[in-house]
Amino acid sequence: MYPNRIKELREDRDITQREVAEYLQVAQNTYCNYENGVREIPIELLIRLSRFYKVNVEYLLGLTDQAAMLPPSKTFHSRHSIFSKEPKK
């Protein structure tokens, strides 16, 4: 579960809750509630934490034990490129 992961990551790096809360632009007690599982952390903040700790979101959520950030999906890029092309005339 992610509360354990985000607390472990923070403690392993000797960072205070206040420092992480400032990075996320939330109150320290709000971040404390995320770590303690009292409040669900919004997906936007999970993504920011992922970037902050340089781990993938799946790791934060406890879905994998592989912490390394994954390269962008080729499927996403190919689909995305379809939408970025100019429409045919």
Explain what you see.
Helix 2 crosses helix 3. This protein has 6 helices and no strands. Mean pLDDT is 82; it is low at 73-87. The N and C termini lie far apart (50 Å). Helices cover 60% and strands 0% of the residues. The protein has 89 residues and is mainly α. The chain has a domain at 5-61: 434 Repressor (Amino-terminal Domain).
Write the topology of this structure.
Layout: H1 2-12, H2 17-24, H3 28-35, H4 43-53, H5 57-60, H6 74-84
Helix pairs in contact: 2-3
Structural class comes to: mainly alpha
How many DSSP helices?
Answer: 6
Order of helices and strands: HHHHHH
Q: Please name the fourth-level CATH homologous superfamily of the domain at 5-61.
A: lambda repressor-like DNA-binding domains
Query: Which regions have little confidence, pLDDT < 50, spanning 5+ residues?
Result: 73-87
Instruction: Tell me the distance between the termini.
Output: 50 Å
What is the top-level CATH class of the domain at 5-61?
A: Mainly Alpha
- What is the overall shape? globular
CATH architecture of the domain at 5-61: Orthogonal Bundle
- Average the pLDDT over all residues and give the rounded result: 82
Helical content band: 55-70%
Number of strands: 0
